[in-house]
Each structure stands twice: as C-alpha cells, then as structure tokens.
C-alpha cells in the first residue's frame, strides 16, 4: 500500500495542453475519485499515474518513490479499463494469471492467488470459460480479478462501469466499495458519473479543462461547492441558479424579477451592483403551502410534476423562471397550484456571475 | 437482393440459373481438358473426348522421372514458403508499429511505404537484376525471393486490421509487464488471424505463380520455379501436347487442391483485402 | 547503453522499440523499392548496355522512343488489351454477379466455378489455351468450327486475331475475382433500399439504374482500377502463347512489359528499356490518380 503524490503535472499532446499543472496528494488507503465531463483531463491524469502516458512536466511519487521513468509494470499498480481489456483469446484463468506469469511467480502461489481472487469475485465456476462466453458484468469482474492478484499498492480504475447497464452498475459499484473496504488498498478512480463519485469516494477531485476545480469529501462538495461548475456537476437534479445582483445593505441581494432578499450574512468581497447567481439545491427547497420560515420564500406556480416514488420533483415557475424542488412523495399537487418554495439561509449559495466562484460569507 | 419469386415456379429464374451454371461449367472446361489430356497416351491426343479411353499415368511418370519438374516443384514450394513466413512476420510487425505506436516520423514512414505500392515491379527489375549481378544473387533461391520478402500491400492491410485491436488491451498488457515484442506477439497478433490467413494465402499464391522476375533471375534449369520451368519445358516439347498438359496440370493441381480445402478463407480473404486494401 | 535506456521515459522507450521493429522493413523498402526507383530513372537517361560504362545522354532515349514505330505499336497494343479487355470483363462479371446474387440454389458452388481460374498459374493456363487455338486436328476451337461447317481460323497465327485470342484467357482468368468483389458489393447494399423501392412500385430496371449501380460506385471504381492495371501489365500470357515469347506475329500482340523484357534481358539495352518502364509507371500512376479523383468527387 502506498500514497500517491502528484506535483505540477502537465500533459501536452503536440501543441495542445490538456492537463495544466495538477497537484494532488492521495493518502495511503484512500479512495479518491477523479470526476469531470469528458475532455477534462481526468483519464489522461490516471494514465500518467499508470505510466501509459509520459509527463510533459511535473513529478509523480507512488509510496515516496519517484516513478516518472519507471515502466507500468514496475510502478506497483494495477489498472481496470473501461472496455475491460481482457484478452479475448485466453481463458478467464489465464487472463487473471497473465500478469503473475510475467512476474515469474511460482506456480502454486499463482494458483493460490487466482483461486482467492476468483472466490472473492464469484468467478470460480467460470475460470475455464473464454471472455466471449461471459456477460458484461462477469467480464468486468475478470478485469478486477486480474488487477487484484497483483497485490498492487494502488488500484487505478478508468471508467470501469460505464459499459454496464444501470442495474449492474449499481451492483458493481457496491462490490468495488466492499472490495476497497476488505483490501484497504489505495484507489484512484476515474468517472464522469457524479453518482459513482459520491457513493465511492473518500475524497472527490472535480476536474475541468485540465485543472482541479475542487477537492473534498463528497458531503463537503455537496454542501460547500466553491464554484458554479462544481455546484451544478454534483447533485441531481442540478442546483437551481437564480440571477441577480448584490443589493445595498448587509447580506442582501436583488433577484431578477423576484425581489430583494436579505439575511444572507456578510458578502465580504462583493460591492453593490455586482452580478451574482443565487444557487439553491432542489433538495433544500421545501414546498410549503403557507408563508413563513426560511430566508428564501417564493410564491410559485406549479408546472410539471414528476413523481419518483419516495419523493416528487416539482417544477414551479417564479418570476418567469422555472425552479425545481424535491418534495415528499406523499404530497398532492396539481398543475397550476400556487405554492411557496422555502429555503434556509445556510442552504443558499451565492456565486459571482463573472468568475463563477462562490462569494465567501 | 431477391424479388420474392419462387425459383421453382418462375421460369425466367430457372433459365437464368441454368445459364449461370452452364457459364460456370464452361469456366472450368480448360481444367477438364487439361487433366483429361494429361491422362492420355500419345495415340489418343487427337481424340478430344473428355474421358480418356485408356487412362494412363505414363505422362506423369515420365515427367517426374525424366524432367526436372520435381525439382522445380520443390524450388517453388520452398521459395513460396519462406517468402510467406517472412511477409507474415515483417508486414504484421510493421503494420502493428504504424498502427499502435505514436512517435516522431511515423507519418513519413507510413507515406514512404504506401508510396511503394504505386511502383510497378516492371520498373524495378532492371535495378534488381544489376543488384543481383553485383551481389552474386543471380540464379539463386535468394535472388528469386528477395524482392518479395516484405510487401507494402501487406503492411497496409495489417495496419488496417490492427485498428480493430483495442488500445486498452495493449495498455493492459504493458501493465501486466509484457515486453513490447511480446505484446505484439502474444496479445495483438492472435487477434488478427483472419487477416493473417488472407495475407498468407495471397503471398503464397503470388509467389507460386510469379513469372517475370524468376524468368529474369534464373539461369540454370535446376533453379527454375514451376512457371518458368513449364514455359521452357513446353517450348521444348512444343508438339507433344499431352506432355505439356501434364506439366500444366502439375503446376495447377496444387492450387486447385488448396482452393477446395480453403475455399471459405480464400474468398473471405479476397473480399477483406479488396474492401480494405 | 542499458543505463541510457533506463533513463528514458516510457514514451521514449516505446519510440525506441518502434524504430527497432521498423528498422529491417524500412531498410528493405528503401533498398529494394525506393532506391531502385531512382536508379531506374537515372538509367533511363543513359545509354547503358551492361557491357560498357554508362554514359549520360539526357533525354535521348525518350526522343528515340518517340520516333520508334515498334514502341508506338507496343504502346497501342497495351491500350488495346486495356480498352477491350477491361469493359468486357467488367460487364460480364457484373452480369454474372447481379444475377447470381438473386439465386440461392448452389450459389456458393457456382461462384467457386467462376473463381477457380483466378488462382491458377497464368503460364500454365496460357499453354492450355494455346493448345485450344491449334489448327485441326489438334485444337478444339477449330475442330468445333469445322464440325459446325465453318472454315478454320488462324487465331494466334494471324496478326488480326492473335491479340483477341490472348485477351480471351486473360478475361477468363480475371473474371472470378471481379464476380466475388461485385457480389460482396451487392450484398453490402442494405435490403431496406430495395424494400422501400418495391413498396413504391419501382420497376426492376429503375432499381438497377437508380439504386444498385450508384451504390456500387466505389466497388466499380475499385475494379476498374485493379483490372486496368492488370491489363496494362499483361505479360505472362503473351510470353507463353506466342512463338519464342516474342509477342508475334509481327509484334501484333507484344505489350509494353514484354517489349521492356526483350529490350533489357535479350538485347541488354538497359537505358532504353528503363525509359519505357518510366512510361509504364506514368501510365499506371495516371490511372490511379484519376481513380482517387473520381472517388473524392463523390
């Protein structure tokens, strides 16, 4: 097991720079998820850790050892790929054992490790099959098994679940989490799916255009996003954004077409008139039938209602703008009903419209 | 495309099918006459019936005993086998590198190899002849086969086919700790066997039937390949048609057998390389 | 060396391997293909005859070629092979493929019958056909003609019939390849086009003209080029079907490649032969470039 440290990682392909200097310290045994939209540099970063891609600048340490010039096999890592990347012309057993054979492990030890991995992953009966005879989920287990038997210091996952259907994805997600809890190995996991990131990670690294946007525990990212990008990327449905401007007086904003709102606390770095967005998560927006309560309280007309079972998504119109609120599943509303959307002050986020950064309060 | 006629009931369709089948039979008539005549004695040659009255293997016995056909056959076979192995190995290795590696100069190398496809053999035989003369390769096996040891067509074909091997497999093999050569040999190559078999068949047949260059480079009759030997033999025996047909049959029958055995692969290979190449 | 290698990054190591793997093929292509191309070009500007040292004579070979009636006859013969052989073989093979595609019964077997001649040794088949063309009582064609009450034909012995007599086995041998490629092209056309056309009540000829042929355009272009190149390079058959491989009678069947062969390896006029290979190269290049253009304008 080992820590992973990235210092000023830069990657350039020909003339385009895709990763612009990343610093990241991953502790021993930590499960870190790199998340972001496609093209944000997360996979490239992972491939640089693996040694499949050269660094243009910077330094990577795995377990306090600089690995920049080491070949992948010497970095003490294992990797699971998006398309499984299991060898189609070898049996499951051979696929799992292949890396060990390359490392010239004694045969009994090789068999013991393959057996052990197969038992953990439920592949014992499939060891003599060929990949073409396996389902997508089974193939992904083989790929994980192949990574496991190497006893690596670090596991690297490159979007391992995105080829699976929704149900299987949820199941495999759980298995990967259990595996991490059992083995306690450091994991670096890349995905574009924020649900995967939230459920799996000890810490999430949100990336955008080759830069780190924010690092933090899942709840921290959810509760205190540092930018509109993170706020919208984490959480589903996305955070509501209401445009407005900073108003005169302490902690007051004027929302376009809605009115002035106060009691937000000191907006330290913003002078009056500055354009802002007020963000509020659908989960934090309560649907009430009468006035009162929170710092934000808006009269809204119900548009579309999406019942999801335990909860109901309510799309309601306020001042010509549609907001989403998550209400209790037992609520009974109809299109055209007038309701109040209420939120507390500490559940409101104020972002600078120009820099998109959160305004500290 | 089918128009939904019942072939058993549509007279037009029966007519067309019959014409096509007759055409097919006409296509193989030369082989039938060739083989039939090779089984006829000297007296029966002018009788053009297809089934010989008194079939005999005399011609073959004479051919194998008194001429150098066996030697030519072995020459052709060895040359075709060595060329094929070399082409399979080097063409697939070069195709793999050009497909899967990113390095400075890759594009230039690829264009250079591609451009050799435009140069006809006929334009190169004079320099090859001079080269062989200077190096002492005239009238040797090596002299016959050196121009065909690596082919631009094969490199191009294999490069196209390696596109179907996912890059992630190669990455996974690197993490598993394979050397670069073993990644090619144990991971990538087994996944393009259809292309390899097509390339093998073409190379072997191309070498087996090659005429112009072996005609130029060989000198003594014991170094002839089958086609060159056949040409010289037939020139000598110019009136003994049963012997000439026996020689032609010996040159042709192996490819007919190969075709019957590997028909599926050969036709698939023709289509693959026709569409891709 | 080892230390140097270990100090490289992973990407640099891969580049090292790429060049190691490419070294031999690259050397081969340069030494056996590219360098000789330049060498031929140079030889074409000399009066070299293998015996005495080369003298640079500029474009003299090309001037001689321009004024050489044999060259022009040979050049014209080569185009006759192309201009007669290519269209006939394409039309025939398309007809066979088009109708065979609609048949299910024994389709593979019939296709195989057409394909077999493509695989066989051209030199061997040339002799079989040469035999067919012999006068009575040897040659089957003349026997049939006489049986049917016609007069014998000279075939290979006539300046007017010999070229066609050599073209016949050339078309015969190449037909199967074209049938196979046409069949593959026809099958690649999605059935839904035909179904839609049938629902619209479009006639068979209109379907052929408006759907099948346009969609088959890449296949047709490919075959036009491949068969053009094959006819322009015709050699084996002429060599084996004419007396002493001379392309007679009276050069009536001699194609460019045979002329080059005779000049270079019988007369050892290397410079003049090289100049003619340059002409062949330019003609082949033109055919290929025209095809690439035609594909691009699509």
The major pleated sheet of chain B works out as: none
Rg estimate of chain B, integer Å: 24 Å
The total count of strands of chain C amounts to: 0
Largest sheet of chain C: none
Tell me the overall shape of chain B: globular
Largest chain-chain contact?
B-C, 95 and 98 residues
* Helix content class of chain C: over 70%
Order of SSEs of chain B:
HHHHHHHHHHHHH
Structural class of chain B: mainly alpha
**SSE sequence of chain C, one letter per element:** HHHHHHHHHHHHHH
* % residues in beta strands of chain C: under 5%
Extended strand count of chain B:
0
**Class from helix and strand fractions of chain C:** mainly alpha
Low-pLDDT stretches of chain B: 1-5
Helical coverage of chain B, percent range = over 70%
Helix segment tally of chain C = 14
Low-confidence stretches of chain C: none
Determine the N-to-C terminus distance of chain C: 53 Å
| Averaged pLDDT of chain C | 90
Notes on the protein architecture:
The complex is a heterotrimer of chains A (361), B (277) and C (298). In chain A, helix 2 packs across helix 3 (107-121), helix 2 (92-102) runs parallel beside helix 4 and helix 3 (107-121) crosses helix 4 (136-148). The relative contact order of chain A is 0.12. Chain A has a six-stranded mixed beta sheet with strand order 6-7-8-3-9-10, sandwiched between helices. A five-stranded antiparallel beta sheet of chain A has the order 13-12-11-14-20. Chain A has helices at residues 42-50, 92-102, 107-121, 136-148, 166-183, 194-200, 218-223, 228-233; strands at residues 4-13, 16-26, 31-35, 57-62, 65-66, 77-80, 154-158, 186-191, 203-208, 211-216, 240-246, 253-255, 259-261, 275-280, 286-288, 296-307, 311-318, 321-328, 338-343, 348-352. By secondary structure, chain A is of the alpha+beta class. In chain A, 24% of the residues lie in helices and 34% in strands. In chain B, 72% of the residues lie in helices and 0% in strands. By secondary structure, chain B is mostly helical. Residues 1-5 of chain B have low confidence and may be disordered. Chain C contains 14 helices and no strands. Chains A and B meet through strand 6 and helix 2 of A and helix 8 of B.
């Amino acid at each position: 097991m080992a820590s992973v440290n990235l210092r000023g990682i830069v990657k350039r392909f020909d003339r385009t720079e895709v990763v612009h200097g990343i610093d990241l310290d991953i502790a021993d045994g930590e499960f870190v998820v790199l998340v972001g939209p496609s093209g944000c540099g997360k996979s490239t970063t992972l491939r640089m850790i693996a040694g499949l891609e050269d660094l243009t600048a910077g330094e990577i340490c795995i377990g306090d050892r600089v690995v920049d010039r080491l070949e992948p096999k010497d970095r003490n890592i294992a990797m699971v790929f998006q398309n499984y990347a299991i060898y189609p012309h070898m049996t499951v057993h051979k696929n799992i054992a292949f890396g060990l054979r390359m490392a010239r492990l004694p045969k009994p030890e090789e068999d013991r490790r393959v057996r052990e991995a197969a038992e953990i992953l439920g592949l014992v009966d499939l060891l003599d099959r060929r990949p073409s005879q396996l389902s997508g989920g089974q193939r992904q287990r083989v790929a994980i098994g192949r990574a496991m038997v190497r006893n690596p210091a670090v596991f690297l996952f490159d979007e391992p679940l995105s080829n699976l259907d929704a149900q299987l994805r949820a199941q495999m997600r759980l298995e990967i989490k259990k595996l991490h809890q059992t083995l306690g190995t450091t994991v670096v996991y890349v995905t574009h799916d924020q649900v995967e990131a939230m459920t799996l990670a000890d810490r999430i690294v949100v990336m955008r255009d080759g830069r780190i946007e924010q690092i933090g525990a899942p709840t921290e990212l959810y509760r205190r996003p540092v930018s509109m990008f993170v706020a919208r990327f984490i959480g589903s449905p996305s955070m509501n954004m209401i445009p407005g401007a900073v108003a005169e007086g302490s902690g007051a904003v004027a929302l376009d077409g809605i009115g002035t709102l106060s009691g937000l606390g000191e907006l330290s770095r913003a002078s009056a008139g500055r354009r802002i967005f007020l963000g509020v998560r659908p989960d934090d927006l309560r649907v009430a039938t009468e006035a009162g309560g929170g710092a934000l309280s808006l009269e809204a007309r119900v548009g579309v209602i999406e019942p999801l079972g335990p909860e109901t998504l309510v799309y309601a119109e306020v001042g010509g703008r549609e907001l989403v609120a998550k209400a209790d599943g037992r609520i009974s509303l109809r299109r055209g009903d007038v309701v109040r959307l209420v939120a507390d002050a500490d559940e409101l986020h104020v972002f600078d419209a120009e820099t998109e950064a959160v305004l500290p309060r | 495309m089918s128009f939904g006629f019942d072939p058993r009931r549509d007279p037009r369709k029966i007519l067309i099918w019959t014409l096509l089948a007759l055409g097919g039979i006409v296509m193989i008539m030369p082989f039938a006459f060739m083989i039939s005549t090779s089984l006829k004695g000297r007296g029966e040659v002018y009788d053009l019936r297809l089934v010989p009255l008194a079939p005999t293997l005399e011609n073959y016995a004479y051919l194998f005993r008194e001429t150098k056909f066996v030697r030519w056959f072995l020459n052709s076979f060895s040359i075709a086998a060595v060329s094929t192995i070399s082409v399979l190995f080097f063409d697939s290795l070069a195709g793999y590198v050009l497909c899967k590696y990113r390095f400075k100069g890759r594009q230039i190398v690829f264009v250079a190899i591609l451009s050799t496809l435009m140069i006809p053999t006929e334009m190169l035989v004079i320099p090859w002849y001079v080269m062989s003369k200077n190096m002492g390769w005239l009238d040797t096996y090596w002299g016959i086969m050196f121009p065909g040891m690596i082919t631009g067509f094969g490199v191009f074909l294999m490069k196209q086919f390696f596109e179907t091997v996912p890059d992630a497999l190669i990455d996974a093999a690197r993490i598993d700790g394979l050397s670069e050569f073993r990644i090619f040999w144990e991971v990538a190559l087994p996944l393009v066997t259809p292309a390899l078999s097509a390339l093998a068949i073409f190379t072997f047949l191309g070498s087996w039937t090659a005429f112009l260059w072996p005609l130029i480079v060989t000198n003594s009759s014991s170094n002839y390949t089958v086609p060159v030997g056949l040409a010289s033999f037939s020139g000598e025996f110019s009136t003994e048609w049963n012997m000439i047909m026996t020689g032609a049959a010996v040159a042709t029958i192996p490819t007919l057998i190969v075709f019957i055995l590997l028909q599926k692969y050969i036709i698939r290979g023709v289509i693959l390389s026709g569409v891709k190449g | 060396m080892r230390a140097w290698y270990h100090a490289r990054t992973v990407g640099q190591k891969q580049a090292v391997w790429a060049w190691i793997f490419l070294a031999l093929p690259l050397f081969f292509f340069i030494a056996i293909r590219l360098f000789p191309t330049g060498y031929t070009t140079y030889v074409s500007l000399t009066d070299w005859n293998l015996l005495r040292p080369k003298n640079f004579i500029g474009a003299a070979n090309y001037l001689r070629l321009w004024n050489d009636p044999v060259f022009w006859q040979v050049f014209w013969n080569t185009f006759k092979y192309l201009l007669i052989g290519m269209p006939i073989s394409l039309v025939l093979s398309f007809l066979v493929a088009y109708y065979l595609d609609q048949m299910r019964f024994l389709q593979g077997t019939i296709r195989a019958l057409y394909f077999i001649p493509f695989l066989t040794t051209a030199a061997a088949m040339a002799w079989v056909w040469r035999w067919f063309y012999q006068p009575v009582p040897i040659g089957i064609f003349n026997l049939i003609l006489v049986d049917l009450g016609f007069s014998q034909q000279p075939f290979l012995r006539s300046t007017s019939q010999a070229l066609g007599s050599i073209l016949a086995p050339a078309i015969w041998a190449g037909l199967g390849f074209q049938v196979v490629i046409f069949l593959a092209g026809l099958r690649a056309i999605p059935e839904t086009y035909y179904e839609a056309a049938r629902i619209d009540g479009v006639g068979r000829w209109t379907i052929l003209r408006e759907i099948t042929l346009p969609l088959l355009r890449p296949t047709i272009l490919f075959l036009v080029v491949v068969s053009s190149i094959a006819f322009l390079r015709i050699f084996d058959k002429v060599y084996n079907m004419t007396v002493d491989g001379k392309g007679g009678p009276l050069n009536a069947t001699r194609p460019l490649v045979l002329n080059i062969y005779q000049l270079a390896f019988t007369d050892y006029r290397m410079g003049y032969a090289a100049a003619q290979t340059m002409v062949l190269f330019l003609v082949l290049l033109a055919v290929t470039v025209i095809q690439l253009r035609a594909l691009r304008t699509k």
